[in-house]
Amino acid sequence: MRRIVAALGLGALLASACITISTDRPAPSGAPLASGLAPGGDEGALDRALRSVVKIFVLDEAYDLKGSCSGTPIHAAGYIITNWHCVGDPDTGRRHNEDGIVAVGLTKDAQTEPVPEYFAQALAGSPKLDVAIVKIVLPMQKGAALPKSLPIVPTPIGDSDRVKVGDRVHVFGYVASGGDLVTRTSGQISGYIDRDGDGKVDAFKYDAKGGGGQSGGLAVNDRGEQIAVHALGLKVQATDDRFGGGVLINLAKPLIEEALAAGGTGVGRPTDPKLPGLAPPGARPAATPPPARPTPAPPARPTATPARATPAPPAGQAASGESLVGGQLVDADTKRPIGAGEGAFGVLKPGISYDQFTQATPQQRQAMILFEDETDEKGIVLVGPVARGQTYTVVAVAEGYSVRSGTLKIPADAPQLVKFGVFELKKR
User: What pTM was estimated for this model as a whole?
Assistant: First the structure.
């Protein structure tokens, strides 16, 4: 939510053109892959890291799609490290489903979207640390058997104690705002974080960009060794700066050992079915597997393209009585899209007017925003889900442009995707 709050805080309120957004205007087209490639490091090792990262499809109690994350294979027997919140509730410690099952899609290459291929089961984890170790236990294809050698690319585990502030870091994962394909961003280690407030640092912060869907993703050094499990976007107090961050890999090593002890070093189901807090592995879930185009967790968004009959919604995906809101921000004079990350579109909570929003403090504004998304390379934004039958105030900002606000009415019978079409911004 930093872009809208920051823009208003920097005195960008030079114009506010109130418009009512139509739900039947033409949808914008396309949304490319955000690669974020940067120079530096052993490119062969970094290419291997890109092929290593997997997409995690989060499943609820009924084994229906709940959202998506990222993960990293760490052992040829099918062990994958990810975030705990991808397999369970970090506050209660409860798994999203009884057996701690997620679905896994492999990265074939940078131009191929992963699809669910395997079921994996959580064997060890720490809600406090936000790290979980899952193991591939079943193929999703009914009646099939796991191969003796899984087609995964394990990443070598590094030593986070040897990492210094200023060292290079490369982050891989399935960032929702980067589309459906794998994304790599690069930067440097900016410092450390004490995420749980116990007086001991437990994570790096870095300036490599990230976003929703990248949770559990891979952070490596220049040699392609995993140094952290990507876990958060950190907003520094009293500023509008945002950092990526990842749990120190050395803190996760005891969990890896615990999982290996429980699951064994061979491909297949765990050798020890009596896992603390985990029901004995049962039969393959009877529910329909996740669709080929699952969706990322909010607040990020999937690629918005009119080619899909029903665009995939973010997790907590649009349920009955909810819709997503999508469209495009462009320059009013040139009609060119606002560039990737240069603009943002936000929906305020019901009942919050534009005047209330602008008169509030930056901290209050943050609490007033229901959803926000930054533009991709084609100026496309997608936010939600929002409740139908409601009227919302919306705000669009971009660097060097006047702020625009409008009123968005979501009919009670609105479709799953409400297309507001093109939102034009004028240069200041």
Answer: 0.56
Whole-number Å distance between alpha carbons of 425 and 395: 11
What is the DSSP annotation of 129-193?
TTEEEEEEEEESSTT----SS----PPPB--GGG--TT-EEEEEE--GGG-SS-EEEEEEEEEEE
Give residue-wise pLDDT tens across range 102-130: 999 999 988 988 999 999 999 999 999 99
What's the rounded Cα separation, in Å, for the pair 426 and 217?
38
Let me know: does 375 contact 358? Beta carbons within 8 Å: no
214-244 exposure pattern, b = at least 16 Cβ within 10 A, e = fewer: bbbbbbbbbebbbbbbbbbbbeeeeeeebbb
Residue 306 to residues 30, 301, 327: CA-CA distances in angstroms?
A: 8, 15, 10
d(CA 299, CA 385): 9
Burial class (CB in 10 A: 0-12, 13-18, 19+), 304: buried
**H or E element at residue 4:** helix 2-9
Q: Cα separation of 97 and 60, whole Å?
A: 5
Report the share of the chain in percent with pLDDT over 70: 75
Instruction: Please give the structure tokens belonging to residue 396.
Output: 């669009």
CB neighbour list of residue 110: distance below 8 Å, 6 or more residues apart: 33, 35, 50, 181, 182
- What mean pLDDT do residues 265-294 have? 49
pLDDT, position 282: 38
The chain-wide mean pLDDT, for the chain, equals: 76
Architecture of domain 2-31+303-425: Sandwich (2.60)
Structural domain boundaries in the chain: 2-31+303-425, 33-300
**C-alpha gyration radius of the chain:** 22
* pLDDT tens-place string over residues 288-321: 344 444 433 443 333 333 333 333 333 334 445 7
Topology of domain 33-300 in CATH is Thrombin, subunit H (2.40.10)
Q: What percent of the chain has pLDDT over 90?
A: 31
**Which residue carries 């989060």 as its tokens?**
58
